[in-house]
Description:
Blueprint lengths: L15 E4 L6 H7 L6 H13 L2 E6 L4 E7 L5 E6 L8 H16 L12 H9 L22
Antiparallel strand pairs: 1-2, 2-3, 3-4
Helix pairs in contact: 1-2
Amino acid sequence: NNKPTSFSFLxxxxxxxxxxxxxxHSHLVNSTWRHGGKPETEEYLxxxxxxxxxxCVYNKDGNPISWVLMGYHGALGIGYTLPEHRxxxxxxxxxxxxxxxxxxxxxxxxxxxxxYNEASRxxxxxxxxxxxxAGKVAFIPVNRSKLS
Length: 148
């Protein structure tokens, strides 16, 4: 069996801890997510955080400063680091934690990156991901007002 079963994730410094994200942080994630900001996306994020593996870097006061989620389709994503905490390695810390969780559960870590997001591509290359062009993906939500 050639498949890795764990990933040596980076260790937190004394200023932070790494643990799963909590459902009560759905509002914060919703407010920072490019596709968020709506009640239905907050409801979705609460479901995802409550149901699937997540990783969050918390500061000494227990506040989230960087996180990565797993969507219902199994892809990692919705990663974000608060602007004042960027360039400190916290996103890599959350990501390596998530990769380790996935491998220990037997999941293949994968993600989708929007074509324009070179910063995300670079961050994930540093983590060992390789870019494979696999066509285009479109997420098309149903217009609930048209349903009867």
